[in-house]
Write a structure and sequence with these properties.
By secondary structure, the chain is α/β, with parallel strands linked by helices. It folds into 3 domains: 181 residues; 157 residues, Alpha-Beta Plaits (2-Layer Sandwich), CATH 3.30.70; 253 residues, TIM Barrel, CATH 3.20.20. 61% of the residues lie in helices and 15% in strands. β12, α18 and β13 form a beta-alpha-beta unit. α1 runs antiparallel to α2, α3 runs antiparallel to α4 and α8 runs antiparallel to α9. The protein is elongated and about 130 Å long. The structure holds ligand C2E and calcium ion (CA) (2 copies).
């Protein structure tokens, strides 16, 4: 454990020491004058004055370099020298006065030395390398003096003086250990031995001062371990703790010397670089080092026979004070935002905080704020995109949500639906979409038109909500005749598999009893494990538009589409191709047995009225 020195504490001791020397020192001047020792006392006192003056300058200097660790270390060397000098001077006057037994100055001298050693052991207690030699410098001459008396009580006093210094050393040493322990614990994390959050923030604040003064830059990381909770939950906290220790050890070994590393929370670490001179170095070093660090963290761990693999999400923030004067917490927040961006992008990666990211976050916040009001004010509309059959005739539609805000413009349902899932609004919003769609479908029915295939997107959180089946049932009973129920398809994505799978299956089966069918949306983009296709009660696969787009360009996508079509045949499922934009795509899909088609080649999603005019009532209307 490295010795911890509280510089500020020592700064105070300088003034105390000056006071304790100059004021009692006057007594020596007076006694010296009274007993014919004035010259030596005067020389001694003058030297004391010079050393004190220097001490005072050291005291003042501290205030200027308070934030600079390196300068403080050099300053402290001077402070130590000051202490040696001042206690050395006390020993010197002892040597001068001690032989003066006739004038009884020897009593003064002896008492001085005993007093000085108490002062030294109390004032210098936080640095063992300082109080041990100084105590010896003070007491050993006294011991020697007693020995030189050559009398039996001289020997006894010499012996006593040794006991005395022994006790002082013992007591100081105990206090020293306690101080060091407390100082260590207040700055370090108990589990990993890394610095703790408090120290890190203190350090950052000092660093910011220095960067500003020297016009330099630095960068910091916030590192969060991915899915660490799973390890804790499945293998227990013991293993979790050991893993944290190992990871900390690795990060420390990799970064120590160049970075300050701290554990700031359960599985969160923060790091800050050294001072750097230019922006280019800062940018390139921060990315390169983060990549290497991620590699180091990702190497396998073996703990109590378990082989563990772990990745991390790293957010980077540049500390560039030319641009803005911000405090430590500001940079921590930036790195935090960047780190969350990594999580949002699927973890195991590195993101730098920049203007674009912060603008996006601000926009997302704005969207989140407005979404509820948009929903409450009926600003979320439903559009309908036609589905075509193999005979090139419209056979149904998919309901798609639209939101256009006056200030923010059009907001993609991908964004606001995800946000509604996050905030929980999706339950209300989802019910609203269901009811509105059912009403539309009922109005077509009332006008005497029949829709074969009516698709509604259902989000995972909606599906697993405990009231979902009851809500759907109520909405259906209120709006639809029984004949229409079997034309309804709920489109779900593979994200429902992340939730409770047996529960999802149960809900789907209950809904199927109401007559509703299921489509697996975006098929091929997720896990696409065949085993769940057998388990989940789906009736239809939707080939994701991204494969369809690249049919003519990429052989792999072509193969993918053919594979999905043949899988569907094996499982006896219908296939809908999304995002069909060209005749070539349509022909290809037709040739390989696709059942239904959707995309701009046929039509874009349309407003309810427009869809009604164009398809429901016009000549190319839905089949009667
Ligand atoms: P999705 O379910 O895969 O919907 C198909 C998306 O492809 C729609 O985007 C549609 O407008 C677009 N699209 C249709 N034809 C073409 C084409 O030929 N080319 C291209 N490039 N795109 C085409 P949209 O409306 O922006 O919706 C995006 C996603 O948002 C949807 O993907 C769906 O996952 C989600 N979403 C939309 N509405 C709802 C909703 O009411 N509820 C839920 N839970 N999700 C919704
Ligand atoms: Ca869909
Ligand atoms: Ca899709």
């Amino acid at each position: 454990m490295k010795q911890y020195i509280d510089y500020q504490f020592f700064q105070k001791q300088i003034m105390l020491m000056i006071g304790l020397s100059l004021i009692p020192g006057l007594v020596y001047l007076v006694f010296g004058w009274l007993y014919g020792m004035f010259m030596p006392a005067l020389i001694w006192y003058s030297l004391m004055g010079i050393v004190s003056l220097w001490g005072y300058r050291l005291y003042r200097k501290y205030l200027q370099i308070e934030t600079n660790e390196a300068e403080l270390a050099r300053w402290y060397e001077d402070v130590k020298l000051f202490m040696y000098l001042i206690f050395g001077l006390w020993t010197w006057i002892f040597v001068v006065f001690a032989p003066e037994s006739e004038s009884h100055l020897n009593y003064i001298a002896i008492f001085t030395q005993l007093g000085a050693s108490v002062v030294a052991s109390a004032l210098l207690v936080s640095d063992r390398k300082l109080f041990v030699p100084i105590l010896l410098i003070l007491i050993l001459p006294l011991t020697l003096f007693f020995l030189l008396l050559g009398t039996w009580y001289g020997y006894v006093l010499a012996f006593f003086s040794l006991i005395y210094v022994g006790v002082l050393l013992y007591a100081s040493n105990n206090t020293y250990n306690l101080i060091q322990k407390t100082a260590y614990e207040s700055r370090h994390d108990v589990l990993t031995g890394l610095y703790n959050r408090r120290f890190f923030i203190e350090y950052m604040e000092k660093l910011l001062f220095r960067l500003k003064a020297n016009r330099q830059l630095a960068y910091m990381y916030l590192i969060d371990l991915d899915h660490f909770k799973t390890i804790n939950d499945s293998l227990g906290h013991d293993i979790g703790d050991k893993l944290l220790q190992k990871i900390s050890g690795r990060i420390e070994a990799f970064a120590s010397g160049t970075h300050i590393v701290s554990r700031i929370g359960g599985d969160e670490f923060a790091m800050v670089s050294q001072e750097l001179d230019d922006k280019e170095t800062c940018i390139s070093e921060s990315s390169q080092f983060a990549e290497n660090l991620l590699e180091v963290i990702k190497r396998p761990y073996v703990i109590d026979g378990h082989h563990l693999y772990l990745s991390a999400s790293i957010g980077i923030s540049y500390i560039d004070l030319h641009l803005q004067g911000a405090d430590a917490s500001n940079y921590m927040k930036e790195a935090d935002i960047a780190m969350y961006e990594v999580k949002a992008q699927g973890r195991d990666g590195i993101v730098r905080f920049d203007k674009a990211l912060s603008d996006r976050i601000a926009r997302d916040l704005e969207i989140e704020k407005k979404l509820y009001f948009a929903f409450a004010n009926g600003a979320i509309e439903l559009y309908y995109q036609p589905l075509y059959s193999r005979e090139n005739r419209i056979t149904g539609c998919e309901v798609l949500s639209r939101w256009k805000d006056r200030e923010l413009g059009e907001i993609s349902p991908e964004i606001f639906i995800a946000m509604a899932e996050k905030t929980g609004l999706i339950i209300e919003l989802g019910n609203y979409i269901l009811e509105e769609s059912f009403k539309t479908l009922a109005s077509w029915e009332a006008a005497g038109h029949y829709c074969n295939h009516f698709s509604i997107n259902i989000s995972a959180r909606q599906l697993t909500n405990s009231a979902f089946v009851a809500d759907v049932k109520a909405a259906i009973e209120e709006n639809l005749s029984s004949g229409f129920r079997s034309t309804i398809y709920f489109e779900v994505t593979e994200s429902i598999l992340v939730e409770d799978i047996p529960k999802a299956i149960r809900v789907m089966q209950e809904l199927k009893r109401l007559g509703i069918r299921f489509a697996m949306d975006d098929f091929g983009t997720g896990y696409s494990s065949l085993s769940y296709l057998r388990e989940l009660p789906v009736d239809e696969l939707k080939i994701d538009g991204s494969f369809v787009h690249h049919i003519e360009m990429s052989e792999e996508d072509e193969t993918m589409v053919k594979t999905i079509l043949s899988i569907a045949k094996t499982f006896d499922l219908k296939v809908v191709a999304e995002g069909v934009e060209t005749k070539d795509q349509y022909d290809f899909l037709l040739k390989h047995g696709c059942d239904l088609f959707q995309g701009f080649y046929f039509d874009a999603p349309l407003e309810k009225e427009a869809f009604y005019r164009k398809y429901v009532t016009a000549s190319i209307s839905l089949p009667q």
